[in-house]
Amino acid sequence: MTATDRIWLKSYSKSIPHDINIDQYSSLIGFISDNLKKFKDRPAYTCLIGSNQKTLTYGDVDRMSDATAAYLQSLGLQKGDRVAIMLPNIVQYPVALFGVMKAGLIPVNTNPLYTGREIKHQFNDAGVKAVIIAENFANELEKVIKETGVKHIITASIGGMFGGVKGFVINTVLKFKGMVKKFNLPGAVKFPAAIKAGTGKKITEHAVSKEDMVCIQYTGGTTGVAKGAILTNKNLLSNMAQMSAWLADANIKEGEEVMLTPLPMYHIFSFTVNCLCMSNFGALNVLVPNPRDIPGLVDVIDKTKPTLMTGVNTLYNAMLNNDAFRALNFSALKFSVGGAMAIQGPVAKRWKEVTGNELLEGYGMTETSPVASANVVGNVQTGTIGFPMPSTYMRIMDEEGNIQGPGKGHGEIQIKGPQVMQGYYNRPEATAESFTKDSWLKTGDVGVMLDDGAFKIVDRMKDMILVSGFNV
Fold it and tell me: Which end of the chain has fewer beta carbons closer than 10 Å to its terminal beta carbon, N or C?
């Protein structure tokens, strides 16, 4: 397939480039670090716990992640060593993530709700040597820690976001309610102590290239063995550039946007779209630790007045069924993005009626960093997954190995592009099975290409997963 075969380009607005260029950066953390400095005085991440709110500026995150990186290096961890991050959506997450990256280490996002068995598999599969974990989930780690290669543990608490008397009271209440069970992890260091120990220390910088692995992101199938997708600097830089280009007509204002982040950032969708990409605009991420608490989520929306938000179909539907949500003022909201699962027509219709905004559906997977296609702002085709992103190729391949053109038959959706993973970590056979002989990623999803180049999924072959309790 050549550029002339990308008939979907005709549906791009004049503002959206056909291809992206990431020559400016060699590493993801270089890109992030520039944004942290560029928007140093802007609020970057905020989290509300009841009546308490904690906000970190981009400058705060920069300084604290520097200290985290220095501390991790002081432990003797070497370039490329894996560090698991087991945190919900709290402000410590970006500090931990960027600190790990600045230290030249590889973050392994791990669902903090995992059982001991799941933790053991992922840690041993990835070769994890250190972990940054929320205290709420540390008792599960305790059960299997001796069966892993983990040598260093950093614990974070909800109250730790606030510090002082307020933080102490919050942690005490959580323990009283049984939300933080007793645990015993000898040698564990509290996150504030780690940051204090690393403050003022120099970080050893390492040479990096675009082809270097930048994170191991695990797939979330409920059956079979979860596999770690190797995502490179090129993969994530490309996907952020693609999404930034895609929003050319979305009236995004640098340093002014407020992004609601209800989906967990350890999941690839929120990880890339919210945590990483929004830094390019100097946006404020409103972190929601528990999106299943719909009344609490509605209260957060009312207080923070988001201009952008991401979610999944089940979350949008749950909000629409809440009386208080429907009574909110949505004048600040510009658009909402639905991913990770199909957006149902009735949900999209009701969302437009209630909020006055289109619900943009996109498509992707862990293996594509994740965004491969999306509806165009101002040209939403409900029921489709939109058009391939810039520099991205998609095709339909039937069971006989024939490519099905626009308006033709259905087949497997296959993808090529700079955001497609390098492969699965330590799984050469699984990697080989996931690509065609001519190097197209086999998604396992059945779809059709419409006459204008938009794609539509007609059947799903992939395993279902859970995103913070929402079926995906």
Answer: N
Q: Which of 272, 270, 273 is closest to 288 using CA atoms?
A: 270
Tell me the CA distances in angstroms from 263 to 27, 100, 214, one per residue in order. 26, 22, 22
What b-and-e string marks burial along 219-231, b requiring 16 or more CB atoms within 10 Å of the CB?
bbeeeeebbbbbb
Q: What is the rounded CA–CA span in Å between residue 340 and residue 343? A: 9
Tell the residue number behind the tokens 């820690």, with chain if given: 145
Exposure string of 51-77, with b = 16+ CB inside 10 Å and e = fewer, is eeebebbbebbbbbbbbbbbbbbebeb
Count the helices and strands in the chain (H runs, E runs).
Answer: 14, 24
What torsion do the CA atoms of 306, 158, 340, 105 make, to the nearest 10 degrees?
110
CATH code of the region 1-27+233-472 = 3.40.50.12780
Q: Are the C-beta atoms of 426 and 122 separated by less than 8 Å?
A: no
**For 301-354, how does the pLDDT look when each residue is reduced to its tens digit (9 = 90+)?**
999 999 999 999 999 999 999 999 999 999 999 989 987 667 888 999 999 999
Render pLDDT for 4-39 as a digit per residue (tens, 0 to 9).
589 999 999 999 999 999 888 889 999 999 999 999
Looking at residue 455, its pLDDT comes to: 96
Residue ranges matching CATH 3.40.50.980 in the chain: 50-207
Determine the pLDDT at residue 181.
78
CA 453/CA 209 separation, integer angstroms = 34
- Is the CATH number of domain 50-207 3.40.50.980? yes
Alpha-carbon distance values, 129 to 122, 123, 284, 341, 443 (Å):
12, 8, 32, 33, 31
Nearest to 275 by CA among 462, 463, 107, 466: 107
Q: Count Cβ neighbours within 10 Å for each residue of 155-169 and write b for 16 or more, e otherwise.
A: bbbbbbbbeeeebee
Sheet with strand 441-449: strands edge to edge: 403-404, 393-397, 411-416, 441-449, 455-460
Residues of the chain with CATH 3.40.50.12780: 1-27+233-472
Q: How far is CA 73 from the centre of its chain?
A: 25
Structure-token pair, residue 324: 């208080």
Distances (CA, A) of 130 to 101, 316, 403: 13, 36, 46
Token pair, residue 43, equals 């609020």
pLDDT tens for each residue of 174-198: 565 666 678 899 999 999 999 999 9
The fraction of the chain above a pLDDT of 90, given in percent, is 78
Tokens of 169: 């009271």
| Residue whose entry in the numeric block shows the structure tokens 């929004």 | 278
